[in-house]
Fold each of these.
Amino acid sequence: MDFAIDFISPGFGSDATESRHDVKFFLNGVEFLTVNSLSTSQLVTASIDATSIAAGESVLSWQRVGGASGGNWISLDYVSLVSVPEPSRVVLLMGALGLLVVRRYR
């Protein structure tokens, strides 16, 4: 699975100093990514092993766990979690399609 989160405007404190943020990301309570010293707008991406996720509902969460303070708020533009087919499934599908094409031309 591909994960992406777009942080925008990571915040300034009341004294107009730049803030820095340490953020941890979790899927079903299991940490899969840590970003340290987030201080500018940026797109953060990661790949998650989908085989470790049980069928059913899943919970995606993140937590600011520290960083130098100016302000302790962060704005988000979007969050995305997309399932990507496993290469082995794609190979099997392509093989099956190839057999169908060969069989049709015989």
Note: The helical segments are 87-104.
Amino acid sequence: MFVELVTRHLFTVFNTIEGLFWLTLAAVFLLVARRRRQNTRLAIAAGLLFATFGLSDFVEIHTGGWYKPWWLLAWKASNVIGLATVYVAYRRRASGSSTETSRDN
């Protein structure tokens, strides 16, 4: 019983810290999007994805795991896919593969 209680407490603390980390990272990306002229849309997309990923950690506290219920797993997976897509788009632009360099990209 004691070990179960400690484990649950650590799970809650870890997920709270993790959620706050992702929300902080989201805020950084959204602030960068306001101040920079390049990759504005990508920074906004990354910021929103990190924010929703962070919120999913708070939901995870109440469900007991990232894989249950199924929709939480789908939520987290869609965030990871979205972040990977943003990263690939950023790398393509950084390497000069894209011909568009306007502020809204």
Note: The mean pLDDT is 90.
